[in-house]
Specification:
391 residues; alpha/beta; de novo design (two linked rop proteins); Rossmann fold; 3 domains; eight-stranded mixed sheet; 16 helices
Length: 391
């Protein structure tokens, strides 16, 4: 392996850091991605009983890690604190900035290329990791979905770079710094930001990797972007409405035109009773830059099977799904596989509890998911020198 590319350890196991899945999944998330210590997650989990506890305890853990010189841990504990901090909280952007500052400080010697991709009158943030002397397997372009930052996937990027791939991660409208620093509202027509990345970096014959809600977005992009040759979707939801598109359109118009006040009041009541529902709707409103709940929900309503256009996907496809994914029901995996009627090939991999990979995006055994992707890529990528322009 090329010594210039950092190697990460991906611990195996989904741990009982907290009795509530709302908190437990996130605590496992940072640990499983290779950034958080097991003992820290266990300790902080024992002190959290509410969303307000979460922010306070995570900031405290970040400050202790900083004092100990554990910069990577500190960065991701600030990220964890930011995660459940509402958009109205003045600390949210400060926590984001602290996360970003510490992360790039921790990996300052790794040769990460930080890029700005022209996008209309604005810019999309991106980062690139190169494999050095072990190049030649092609390029992977990757992105997250509803709530992730591209930096969270640095450990994934290094894994692929160590295998010989050029790797570019970017944030599209509504995500990360594209939303926080550029003010770009979410647009589910994902072929537009993907096309911008490919245009600016002059990329062809690429593998597009979408994670979580990014699974839906990457299929949407692949349906309209012919330069994408292979698609990997991790944690994909085939239809966010989960009802026939014609019915969903009719219902939504009825609700908006005649029942808006009732629906908004019901949503507000549920938000008061259910903190996770409050966070989810708050994040959706933040992504879409909408103050109106119903307007924000249009984005989710738009992300249905009809607008996905699975029938237009002609690439080789790999879909990774956790059998016990608490965000996305297993039926979505089966529906998505069946819908890819014109794909060159489709491989669907369902991970189980016995593999410690049954959860969303295989949190609990990320290493196995990455191995699965690498094995699939080895049989579907052209073994030829990839060219990336000097910037």
């Amino acid at each position: 392996m090329d010594a210039a590319v950092r190697e990460f350890d991906f611990p195996v196991g989904y741990h009982a850091f907290h009795k509530s899945q709302v908190f437990n999944f996130q605590l496992n998330r940072w640990h499983s991605l290779g950034y958080a210590r097991h003992e820290d997650m266990a300790e902080v989990g024992s002190r959290i009983a509410s969303f307000s506890d979460w922010k306070r305890e995570m900031v405290g853990m970040a400050e202790r890690a900083t004092a100990d010189g554990r910069t990577v841990n500190a960065a991701f504990y600030y990220r964890a604190a930011e995660f459940y901090t509402s958009a109205e909280d003045s600390d949210k952007e400060r926590l984001y900035d602290r996360f970003s500052e510490l992360l790039y400080e921790a990996y300052a010697d790794d040769g990460i290329q930080r890029l700005q991709i022209p996008y209309g009158d604005s810019m999309l943030p991106a980062m690139r990791v190169s494999p050095g002397t072990k190049a030649g397997k092609g390029t992977i372009v990757m992105h997250g979905g509803f709530d992730s930052f591209m930096e969270e996937f640095y450990s994934w990027m290094c894994h692929f770079a160590r295998e010989g791939y050029e790797v570019v991660a970017f944030e599209g409208p509504g995500q990360g710094a594209a939303r926080r620093k550029q003010g770009l509202a979410f647009d589910p027509a994902w072929e537009k930001p993907v096309g911008a990345v490919l245009d600016h970096l002059e990329l062809e014959d690429i593998t597009l990797l979408g994670i979580s809600m990014g699974g839906w977005l990457c299929f949407r992009a692949a349906a309209f972007e012919p330069r994408v040759e292979r698609v990997i979707a991790s944690g994909v939801a085939f239809d966010y409405m989960q009802i026939p598109p014609a019915i969903s359109q009719w219902l939504f118009k009825l609700f908006v035109n005649h029942m808006r006040g009732f629906l908004v009041s019901q949503a507000q009541k549920k938000m008061k009773k259910d903190p996770m529902h409050m966070w989810t709707l708050g994040q959706l409103m933040y992504m879409t830059r909408q103050d109106d709940i119903m307007e924000a929900m249009k984005a989710a309503q738009w992300m249905n099977a009809e607008n996905l256009h699975s029938e237009k996907v002609t690439q080789d496809v790999l879909i990774l799904t956790g059998k016990e994914d608490h965000f996305i029901p297993l039926k979505m995996h089966k529906m998505q596989v069946r819908a890819l009627v014109n794909a060159q090939s489709v491989v669907g991999r369902v991970f189980t509890r016995e593999e410690s990979a049954q959860n969303h995006c295989q949190i609990g055994n990320v290493g196995l998911a990455l191995f699965t992707m690498t094995e699939w890529l080895a049989s579907h990528t052209c073994q030829r020198a990839g060219k990336m322009p000097a910037l």
